[in-house]
Write a structure and sequence with these properties.
The chain contains 12 helices and 20 strands. The chain is of the alpha+beta class. The strands form 5 sheets. The protein has a 7-stranded mixed beta sheet, with helices on one face. Strand 13 (about 290) and strand 14 (about 300) form a beta hairpin. Helix 5 (about 130-155) packs antiparallel against helix 6 (about 210-230). Mean pLDDT is about 80; it is low at about 65-70, about 320-335 and about 420-445.
C-alpha cells in the first residue's frame, strides 16, 4: 500500500507565506492592465498566501529618453491620497500595509532623518549630487524602508515570511511569475535586462534567510559611499550589484521573469527582453522561447510582451499611422541621421527624433563612433543599419584610455521618418563645410 504521508518539503510549502514590497512612484499602476496583472500573474501565482506592502509616491517627475538606451521617457504626474482611482486600486490589491508619500525626496519622513539626506541639506553645496543621482539613492532607501517594515510586521504579528518579492508600481506581468517558494533558498532571484551590464533593480525575490543581510547591505553601501566620496554613483544598479557580489558575497541567479516596465499608456519596454547590447540575455539564450502562438509558431519573450501590449494598450507596432501622441512620445533632444537608399550618392536626412533600437549582438562600446562620418560609413557597410543617432555619448575605455563615443548605429527608422522635421543647417562657412562633409560619406565607405 502506498505511503499517504506528504514529503517533508510539501509540508514546508504548506506553511509558506510571501511578502511583496511594491515601492516607487505610482505612475502607471492605475492602468487596469497593470494592477490586474500584478494581482493575477504575480500575487495569485505564488502557491502561498502573499501579503502586499504598498509604498507609493504620489508625485513624480517626468523622465526623458535615457542617453543611448533607446527607450521612451515616462510622464510626470501627481495624485491626491483620496483619489478615487487610487483608492479603487488599493481596494483591488488588498495590501496589508499602505504608505502614501507625497514625493520621493529628502523632505519625506523617515528619509528626512537619514544621514545622507541630513548632509545634503546641511553642507557640501559644491559637490551636491545631481537630481538623477539623488533619485537613484532615494529609490533604494525607500526599498530599505519597505523591507524593514516587512520585518517589523513579522515581529508584530508573530509570523515569518519565506520570501520577499520587490517590484515597482509601473511593472506589468504578461504571464505567471514562477512561485518563489519552489526555488532554492541558497540565492536571490533577479530579473535581467538587455543592457551591458544587465542589472535590473525593479524586481527581485529574496529568501528570508538573506533578508536582514541584504537590507543592511543596501543601506551600508549608499551611506558608506557617500561618506567616502561625497558622491552618489550613477547609474545606481551598476554599482550596487557588484558591491553585493564582490564585497558582501551575495549569491543571485538571473531568471526570465515575464515582466515589463510600462512607461505610460502604450509605451512599454518590451525591447528590453531581447538581445541588444550583448550577445545573449536569459530571455533568448540558446534559443529559449516564451511558448507557441495560436498558429503554433514559436514566440520570444519580447513577442509575448508585444502581444500583451496590443491586447491591453491597443498598441499596434506594425501600424502605418501612429497615434496622435506619437510625435510627443518620440520627441527628444536626440537627433538622428536617416540612411539614404544610396549611401554614395545621397544626403542623409537629419531629424529631431530618436531612432530607438540599437543593432543587435554587440557590446555598446564596440558599436559606437566618435565621428559622424565614421558612423555613417559603418552604417553604409551594414545592410540592416537604418540610421545613425547622436546620443550624447558614453564613456568607453579603449587601450586603457577613456573615450566619449557620440554616435550609434540603429534600426527602426521608418516609424519616425514622417514624425520629424528636417533641422535647419547652420549658416555660413561652418554650415557649408558640414553639409559638404555629410555629402562625402560615400567616399569614406
Amino acid at each position: 500500500m502506498a505511503n499517504s504521508s506528504l514529503p517533508p518539503r510539501w509540508a514546508d510549502f504548506a506553511h509558506s507565506r510571501v511578502a511583496t514590497c511594491m515601492v516607487g512612484a505610482t505612475r502607471t499602476l492605475l492602468h487596469p492592465a497593470v494592477h490586474q496583472s500584478v494581482k493575477q500573474q504575480l500575487l495569485d501565482s505564488q502557491l502561498a498566501p502573499v501579503d502586499l506592502f504598498l509604498h507609493l509616491h504620489l508625485r513624480w517627475d517626468g523622465t526623458n529618453f535615457a542617453p543611448g538606451m533607446g527607450h521612451h521617457g515616462a510622464s510626470g504626474g501627481s495624485l491626491e491620497p483620496n483619489d478615487p482611482k487610487l483608492r479603487r486600486v488599493i481596494d483591488f490589491l488588498q495590501p496589508v500595509e499602505v504608505a502614501l508619500h507625497s514625493a520621493s525626496d529628502c523632505s519625506e519622513p523617515p528619509l528626512d532623518r537619514h544621514a545622507v539626506c541630513v548632509d545634503l541639506r546641511r553642507s557640501w553645496p559644491s559637490s551636491s549630487p545631481s537630481e538623477a543621482d539623488r533619485a537613484g539613492f532615494l529609490q533604494y532607501m525607500w526599498i530599505v524602508e519597505c523591507q524593514r517594515s516587512v520585518m517589523r510586521y513579522e515581529k508584530a504579528h508573530g509570523l515569518t515570511y519565506s520570501w520577499l518579492i520587490r517590484t515597482r508600481p509601473d511593472i506589468a506581468f504578461f504571464d505567471r511569475v514562477p512561485p518563489c517558494i519552489t526555488m532554492s533558498t541558497r540565492r536571490l532571484v533577479c530579473m535581467e535586462k538587455e543592457s551591458n551590464p544587465s542589472y535590473f533593480d525593479g524586481f527581485w525575490m529574496v529568501p528570508r534567510n538573506f533578508l536582514e543581510e541584504f537590507t543592511e547591505a543596501i543601506d551600508t553601501f549608499w551611506t558608506s559611499t557617500w561618506k567616502q566620496r561625497h558622491k552618489l554613483p550613477w547609474p545606481p544598479e551598476w554599482h550596487l550589484f557588484p558591491y553585493l557580489r564582490h564585497q558582501r558575497g551575495m549569491p543571485w541567479v538571473m531568471h526570465p521573469i515575464p515582466a515589463v516596465l510600462v512607461r505610460r499608456r502604450g509605451v512599454l519596454d518590451c525591447w528590453r527582453l531581447a538581445r541588444r547590447e550583448k550577445q545573449e540575455v536569459v530571455y533568448d539564450i540558446a534559443g529559449s522561447s516564451f511558448g507557441r502562438d495560436a498558429n503554433g509558431r514559436l514566440m520570444s519573450f519580447s513577442d509575448a510582451c508585444l502581444r500583451f501590449a496590443e491586447t491591453h494598450f491597443n498598441y499596434k507596432p506594425a501600424a502605418a499611422t501612429p497615434s496622435p501622441s506619437a510625435a510627443h512620445e518620440l520627441a527628444s533632444d536626440f537627433h538622428s541621421f536617416l540612411k539614404p537608399p544610396d549611401c554614395r550618392n545621397s544626403s542623409w536626412e537629419e531629424v529631431d527624433a530618436n531612432v530607438a533600437e540599437p543593432l543587435h549582438g554587440a557590446d555598446r562600446c564596440a558599436v559606437r563612433f566618435q565621428s559622424l562620418l565614421s558612423a555613417q560609413a559603418a552604417c553604409c557597410a551594414k545592410p540592416k543599419c537604418e540610421a545613425v543617432v547622436h546620443d550624447h555619448g558614453m564613456s568607453c575605455r579603449s587601450h586603457g584610455k577613456a573615450a566619449l563615443h557620440e554616435y550609434e548605429l540603429r534600426v527602426g527608422a521608418a516609424h519616425v521618418r514622417h514624425l520629424s522635421r528636417k533641422r535647419k543647417s547652420p549658416e555660413g562657412r561652418l554650415g557649408a563645410l558640414r553639409r559638404a562633409l555629410l555629402g562625402r560619406v560615400g567616399s569614406n565607405d
